[in-house]
Amino acid sequence: MLLLLGGCGHSPSSTSNSNSNSIVGCGGTIGAGTNSAPASSIDVVTYHYDNLRTGQNTKETMLTPANVNSTRFGRLGEFTVIGKVDAQPLYLSNVSIPGVGIRNVLYAATEHGCVYAFDADSISGNTGKALWITSTSMSGEIPSDDRGCGQVTPEIGVTSTPIIDRRRNAIYVVAVSKTAGGNYIHRMHALDLTTGAELFAGPTLITASYPGSGAGSSGGNVAFDPSEYNQRPGLLELDGTIYTTWGSHCDQGAYTSWVMAFSADTLKQTGLLNLTPNGNDGGIWMSGASPAADQAGNIYFILGNGTFDTALTPSGFPSRGDCGNCFAKISSSFPLTLLDYFTPSNTVAQSSQDLDFGSGGPLLLPDLIDGTGTTRHLAVGSGKDSKIYVLDRDNMGKFNAGGDAVYQEIAGALASNSEFGKPSYFNNIVYYGAVNDALKAFPMTSARLAAIPSSQSSRQFPYPGTTPAISANGTANGIVWAVENGGTAVLHAYDATNLGRELYSSGQAANGRDQFAGNKFITPMIANGRVYVGTPASVAVFGLLP
Questions:
Q1: How confident is the model at residue 27 (pLDDT cuts 50, 70, 90)?
Q2: Which of 148, 448, 450, 535 is deepest in the core (most CB within 10 A)?
Q3: Is the CB of residue 19 less than 8 Å from the CB of residue 8?
């Protein structure tokens, strides 16, 4: 059994000289709840399961439409934490924990700057036990305040979904803290998966400077001011490099659009790109969704409102490098380069009215064959204009003042003007849950997205809508999971073939058995017969009842 130093911070095996004395109340009960780990083969190492960000776990053998109902399925308990769980929890099967044995492990990070490794099977008597707990703050530091912005409040520590590299035995986490002198500090951490100890001589202080005359520039360079930014989107790893993308605090202050790359082996910064270097804004937040990547190693994400140079180069790129409000495709090779993009023809008006593209996150579709037999590489994204954009990743459309030159554009498909989440994909269907709209299923036929949903839920989801996740066994037993936000949140489960058929709702059971607190942008994560949902003070755990 692992113990904590002073009841929080690191376990005794965490001997990094960087923050081994960090004692910043992360709380928790240490111990292992079972003698051995139940059989499991699923690893959830990144946001929405894969780099395409499909949101589908097709290795779920326990949960089916037959047993997910309020009689047989419900809330089993919770893993208590300190701080909001805004990052999606991650999961590893069969991890060897020193002094404990083989365990299935749930990893959770919080806005109090805490990272927890829980025995995923230890829920007993409504609570579960942690295997280790680590604080990302240094001695004398506290988590950042909310910078006067209500999007992430009241404190900011770890907002973005971390990423796990099992081969390197590391979970990578970006955290922000505040010193006693009022300075804000962002760091890249790599924590040992089995002990929580800092790896690779970490953590690394995050700094940056880029040529440009944009907001906050001096002497011909734009500086990364740590007080202006939050690492909101989840992390991405490709070929031993960790990619980070940065948003602002409620469009406040002088900020620009940053992409940074770090070595997974040394935590040193290896690449840098600014996509509004001579302008302003263009924050990347995507309601917490991670950048996506295709098999060729190209990276995709959507920028928020910001400067866009309507004067283009001969090849159609912004003449001064400012691509605010763009669905961007960049290289993963160095130097980081904008390879292609799309922005709507009314992009300047959108940005001036805060109707940005980047409120939603990207979805890359697997290869699809169109009606002519051509293989299509497609991406899907939406923002605040009620449209669904389907882009050809080989020719995204760039900017055309006379009208959008994109693969497919579906107006009015989403009832509201706002997508604050991302679509998900399963078995040739794209699932959307926009603000004040039903959860909708749009089929793909011959590499074309239907303009009208084939099914939809009777429930409409209030702000911020819902980001669905899917569990299935191959293509069978598909279930679409969706969280409805509120003071008391609701977990819904729908038949993936017919969203009009609700299988389960956490509001159905008597006496509030399955109730849990709401958390704005969280997405459910399904692994090994359990559904995990982040709350303001825990990870709620749902599964088949005893």
A1: confident
A2: 535
A3: no
> Which has more confidence, 9 or 229?
229
Domain count of the chain? Answer: 1
Closest by CA position to 290, among listed 281, 282, 299:
299
> Which of 19, 420, 46 is closest to 236 using CA atoms?
46
Bridge partners, residue 389, by sequence: 381, 409
Kindly indicate the confidence band of residue 58, based on its pLDDT and cuts at 50, 70 and 90: very high
Query: From CA 51, how far away is CA 31, in angstroms rounded?
Result: 33
- How much is the mean pLDDT over the chain? 93
Cis peptide before 335 (omega within 30 of 0): yes
Report CA-CA distances (Å) from 65 to 61, 221, 257, 490.
11, 56, 43, 18
Instruction: Report d(CA 279, CA 488) in Å as an integer.
Output: 41
Whether 546 is in a domain gets the answer no
- Alpha carbon 262 to its chain centroid, in Å, reads 18
Question: What is the per-residue pLDDT across 182-226, written as a single tens digit (0 to 9) for each?
Answer: 999 999 999 999 999 999 999 999 999 999 999 999 999 999 999
Asked if residue 463 belongs to a domain, the reply is: yes
Edge-to-edge, what's the strand order for the sheet holding 299-302? 292-293, 299-302, 327-330, 338-342
Range of the domain at 348: 5-541
Domain membership of residue 426 (yes or no) is yes
CATH of the domain at 383: 2.140.10.10
Nearest to 482 by CA among 452, 437, 512: 437
CB 143 within 8 A of CB 137: yes
**187 φ/ψ angles, rounded to the nearest 5 degrees:** -135, 150
Would you call 349 helix, strand, or coil by DSSP? helix
When pLDDT is averaged across residues 160-165 and rounded to a whole number, the result is 98
CB 208 within 8 A of CB 144: no
Taking the alpha carbons at both ends of the chain, their separation in whole angstroms is 26
Q: Which pair of tokens denotes residue 115?
A: 């990272």
User: Above 50 in pLDDT, residue 536?
Assistant: yes
Mean pLDDT of 131-150: 96
Q: Tell me whether residue 263 is exposed, middle or buried, using C-beta atoms within 10 angstroms of its C-beta: 0 to 12, 13 to 18, 19 or more.
A: middle
Give yes or no for residue 448 having a pLDDT over 50.
yes
